[in-house]
Amino acid sequence: MSVNLESGKTMLEHGPEALNRFLASSFEPAIGSEMPQLEVRYKNLSVTADITVTEDVTAKSEIPTLYNTVARSLARMSPLRRVVRKEVIKNASGVFKPGTITLVLGQPGSGKSALMKMLSAQFPVESNITVEGEITYNGVPQKEVIKRVPQFVEYVPQTDKHFATLTTRETLEYAHKFVGAGLAEKGAETFTKGSVEENLAAIEAAKAYYQNYPDVVIGQLGLQNCENTIIGNAMLRGVSGGERKRVTTGEMEFGMKYVSLMDEISTGLDSAATYDIICTQRSIAKTLHKAVAISLLQPAPEVFALFDYILIMNEGEVMYHGRREDVVPYFESLGFKCPADRDVADYLLDLGTRMQHQYEVPLPLGMMKHPRAASDFAEAFSHSRVYADMVGMIEAPMEPELAKHMSEYMDPVKQFRRSWFRNIGALSVRHMTILWRNKAYVASRIVMTCFMGLIYGSTFFDVDPTDVQVMLGVIFQAVLFMSLSQASQIPVFMEAREIFYKQRGANFYQTLSYVVGYSIALIPPSLFEIIIFGSLVYWMCGFVANAGAYIIYLVLLTLTNLVLSTWFFLLTALCPNLDIAKPMSTFSIVFIIIFAGFVQPKSEIPDYLVWIYWINPIGWCMRALSVNEYRSSKYDVCEYGGVNYCSEFNMNMGEYYLSQFGVPSSKTWLWTGAIFMFLFYVFLLGASTYLLEYRRYLAPTNIQ
């Protein structure tokens, strides 16, 4: 069957299954073999976590406050701490073969999500986590390709974290932009083993497919009615919960993925939508030879029947992993019969729990008792024929064709599809779009900036430069207002961090690209605010009427604003949650204000704390702006207001008034202040990048 390649809509005219068959029939002759395949094997896989147990646990002690967080941190460092070992996955072995679709069943906390994250190289392996066993991809150990695994193994998470003001289409198009770049060109390089006509047909199909892939995903997941609707959140109306779940699934579909691991993708979906999605995934597995594993909660019988294999987990134990048609007979052989009026999936989920008694029947010959705990079922499974068949597949030599696919299609894949520079551009545009769509925030900032500028300007209208305390106070307040107002972005930064964790885990983009791109996106609104507020204060308060001094004033305010916004960004990378980041920002603001050199002059700061004065960006900006004002040509004179400062104080007018507050008067402080703030800004960007890359808050640290 031919497919119209004009658009994503026309490509799906005959349904997803017809499109998949067309792609396979177009690509396979041109590559001289079946579609590239990836087989995932894991053997004796165990994951344990050493977790500090907090004593006297109460509801109050579990609230994520600054005090409780510090107390738990101190408890983990105490020599008297009590550590328990939690087994997340216990000696699991299995294989996900190309061309098959596996249903993963398990109660919450069963370990199924941890297994999927381990196989997709997205499990947060930290110092308290121990991993044993081996995972291979077409025979290659995971540790050899761990940084590149997300490029060919997709993991769809349970949680739906998206930017609320982006539409469904925009969310999917950005995913395509990050991980789908260059795939059509890459495909053209591999389509060389067929006839000229076959190669050209494959190239044409690949270009059309990847060019229209967002439309294809939208059509496959039934998102046409909400493609131009914003995602929304608890405070902003957007798509429905089921549609949001489908966006989460679609976002991870982009790129050249050979294995799909999907974690509870049916939450919020009706049975018909779930059936359609699983049918599409089954078609992809069968025609494009992908390995697909999907965990579902209580799938309907018609959905259950679509799977080839069933994997059942409970308490980290594998209770069963084998063919779907063998699962009911297997558990009947253990003395558990599924009633005719009970869905098989519900029956299987009840095994290993207190609900299993309703299924018990007389034991077969040779069995002494029914299995009770998950460990009993795992022990019984390890002695079964089904397990022996699975071990046989794990121990079987790797097919030469799979090894060839690894070297030809997976090995050349880089960790990221696009350069960090190109990703910076895309991320900057994305975050600018998100920022400007928050109309309430933008409008309130504009009104507040204009209002506060007029308040400051009218209150300190045309300040007498000889009243140095008032003049420096105006400078201090202007710097403080423009810089510390960025603290309001902390909740936005924290929300974006969760989305970054997901997308960075999937190798969408480099951490440096995210940090720099986000910072660039903050520059236009900052410039807008600074020009409005800074101009009102500068001209109404009677600062020196000099174009050069005015431009320097705006530049210094902009640099300080960037430094402080990056500081608050750093705090969100450093702190585990918003409840810690907010008090930490307040704590830092107190230090910034006290040690800026105005509230407490440098001469009155204790020697052991003076270092805070020298690293304080507000202090550096204040010194530079003070020099910019008082060392201008208007005040850089001996005689002013009838007083000869050179003869009376042995310094000119500007130097004299700067000395009253211990402000150094050399004009070099203008450019040294600017250089310091720029270097400090770069340092904060680097620190933020390091924390987001190597210190992510994904793993549990304490339990009751």
Automatic annotation (TrEMBL):
UniProt main location, coarse: membrane
Cellular component, GO annotation: membrane
Record keyword Cell membrane present: no
Cellular localization per UniProt: Membrane
Membrane topology designation: Multi-pass membrane protein
Domain ABC transporter: 74-340
PROSITE patterns: ABC_TRANSPORTER_2
Membrane-spanning segments: 440-458, 470-494, 515-538, 550-571, 583-601, 669-692
GO MF annotations in UniProt: ABC-type transporter activity; ATP binding; ATP hydrolysis activity
UniProt keyword annotations, A-Z: ATP-binding, Membrane, Nucleotide-binding, Transmembrane, Transmembrane helix, Transport
SMART domains named among the record's database cross-references: AAA (SM00382)
Keyword Transport: yes
Identification of the protein by name: Pleiotropic drug resistance protein transporter
Species the sequence originates in: Phytophthora megakarya
